[in-house]
User: Which sequence fits this backbone?
């Protein structure tokens, strides 16, 4: 069966972000970018399904500027078979991303679509659920285990208070939690091979999707800084401060 | 314009987060109706009707909603919510699962995890793991929103007298079915709403050592949390994780033990009123946000802390 994986180019998770002085956004100039960590887990899961003989082809798709092709190539180096780049320099919000992915789903007809549960930049946690709604598929969100059997997929989900396991008919959408797997590293030979794998480029207009924004960001600010605290000498002083100064115990 | 709040509950009791969400809805202004969807939810509906400021409680009681499957809930909420100006729910895992599906069915954007209401169409939310705060304005006719419960003071649980109305709407999308669940058992307060949280990180070294933290937590009536490192190392189950990808907490007192303080962890506890860090590495980033820092070996400090606390609490 065919598996579609969506990946996003985001600021590297180790970077301490800086808000622009004019409060229009976060400064992304000259900042290290990478594949969103949850998307890496999605790619890894698809590759494992292929290694188990469950998946026959892995198609990876990314939406964004030209530079997104780096992240598609990374996914190809990790084991995806071909890439689709939906190129736009505009900001694409979750609902519009889901609509673009829906067009790709209609064209490619995958049995399983795997996305990360959230991107670490916008922290929305929406796209997978929206895509499932638009395509009329079932959704297995925040997955920590995925088992495909015949025409069903069983997904163990991380929820408040524990785990819940659901069964979905295929085709279905799955979004990954951090504990689903540990992504592999791409080897140099695989990185070289990935350069020769097919990568198709198209625009939102080609897919007939209007990506006009519904949400306007009025301003972006740095969070209120916490006041620097003090170091205490020992446990007795700590408890005394909590009791008599902070009055929280 | 009225606001619909989708209650968070476990079929037997109303989660406190719902009271925080009602408070957020009241900040928008207008009548607040609460939808309780689940199975055998009489007690939950009763509790919701008593909450301060609730106009009407709508009840959808059916096996189709018993396990909170996102596909079924989304169809119900989209149907009931289409005549409202706003649809709110808490940003717990249930809300995060069904709410974007509701938004897509209604063809509107969703605003996730809001921390403040500026006006009926303008909301404040964290991005980049809480390292930036965005103010966003929605041009959609229906505002579909998940709320960070810790950012709003709850409305009173008693004193209201809302009418209760049963809905005869059964939506079973037939796309998913419940198989099983595995609940983490704990006698301690719920992590997300506890007044005091004691958390351990990689420095705890193993799961057995978390007992030391549990003893301190018992003295304080606190919940026990963990960093991702502690969860990934298998010390404790993942539902104890505090951070960008785990739970967001904002207790009166947060005690971080053997936690370095990565960006992703700070995203989950940076709004705590008082932060205490106990770590042997005095360069650990956690000390930059801690109100009180103790540079010490936790294996010596924690038993001492338990003894000292017993004297004063």
Assistant:
């Amino acid at each position: 069966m065919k598996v579609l994986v969506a990946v996003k180019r985001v600021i590297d998770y180790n970077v301490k972000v800086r808000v622009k002085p004019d409060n229009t956004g976060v400064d992304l100039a000259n900042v290290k970018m990478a594949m969103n960590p949850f998307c890496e887990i999605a790619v890894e899961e698809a590759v494992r399904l292929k290694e188990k003989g469950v998946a026959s082809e892995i198609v990876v798709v990314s939406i964004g500027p030209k530079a997104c092709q780096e992240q598609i190539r990374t996914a190809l180096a990790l084991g995806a078979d071909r890439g689709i780049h939906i190129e736009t320099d505009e900001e694409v919000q979750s609902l519009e991303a889901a609509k673009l992915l829906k067009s790709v789903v209609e064209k490619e007809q995958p049995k399983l679509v795997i996305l990360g549960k959230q991107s670490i930049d916008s922290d929305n946690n929406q796209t997978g659920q929206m895509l499932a709604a638009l395509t009329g598929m079932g959704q297995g969100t925040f997955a920590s285990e995925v088992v495909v059997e015949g025409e069903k997929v069983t997904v163990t989900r991380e929820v408040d208070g524990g785990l819940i396991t659901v069964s979905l008919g295929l085709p279905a959408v799955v979004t990954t939690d951090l504990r689903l797997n540990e992504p592999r590293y791409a080897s140099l030979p695989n990185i070289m091979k990935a350069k020769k794998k097919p990568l198709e480029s198209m625009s939102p207009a080609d897919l007939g999707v209007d990506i006009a924004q519904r949400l306007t960001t009025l301003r972006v600010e740095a969070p209120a800084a916490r006041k620097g605290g003090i170091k205490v000498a020992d446990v007795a002083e700590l408890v005394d401060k909590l009791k008599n100064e902070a009055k929280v115990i | 314009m009225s606001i619909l709040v989708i209650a968070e509950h476990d079929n037997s009791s109303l989660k406190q987060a719902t009271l925080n969400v009602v408070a957020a809805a009241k900040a928008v202004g207008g009548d607040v109706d609460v939808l309780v969807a689940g199975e055998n939810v009489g007690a939950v509906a009763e509790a919701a009707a008593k909450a301060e400021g609730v106009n009407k409680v709508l009840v959808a009681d059916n096996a189709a909603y018993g396990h909170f499957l996102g596909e079924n809930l989304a169809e119900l909420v989209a149907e009931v919510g289409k005549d409202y100006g706003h649809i709110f729910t808490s940003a717990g895992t249930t809300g995060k699962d069904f709410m974007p599906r509701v938004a897509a069915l209604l063809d509107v954007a969703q605003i996730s995890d809001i921390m403040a209401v500026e006006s009926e169409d303008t909301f404040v939310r964290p991005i980049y793991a809480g390292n930036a705060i965005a103010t966003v304005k929605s041009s959609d006719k229906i505002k579909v929103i998940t709320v960070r419960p810790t950012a709003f003071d709850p409305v009173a649980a008693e004193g209201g007298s809302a009418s209760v109305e049963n809905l005869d709407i059964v939506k079973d999308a037939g796309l998913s079915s419940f198989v099983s669940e595995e609940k983490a058992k704990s006698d301690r307060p719920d992590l997300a709403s506890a007044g005091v949280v004691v958390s351990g990180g990689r420095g705890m070294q193993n799961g057995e050592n978390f007992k030391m933290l549990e003893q301190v937590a018992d003295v304080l009536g606190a919940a026990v949390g963990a960093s991702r490192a502690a969860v990934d190392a298998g010390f404790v189950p993942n539902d104890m994780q505090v951070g960008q990808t785990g739970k967001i907490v904002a207790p009166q007192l947060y005690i971080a033990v053997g936690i370095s303080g990565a960006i992703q962890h700070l995203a989950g506890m940076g709004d705590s009123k008082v932060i205490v860090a106990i770590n042997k590495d005095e360069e650990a980033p956690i000390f930059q946000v801690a109100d009180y820092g103790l540079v010490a070996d936790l294996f010596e400090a924690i038993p001492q802390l338990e003894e000292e606390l017993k004297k004063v609490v």
Q: What stands out?
A: Chain A has a mean pLDDT of 97. The helical segments of chain A are 37-51, 69-78, 94-108, 127-135, 188-194, 235-244.
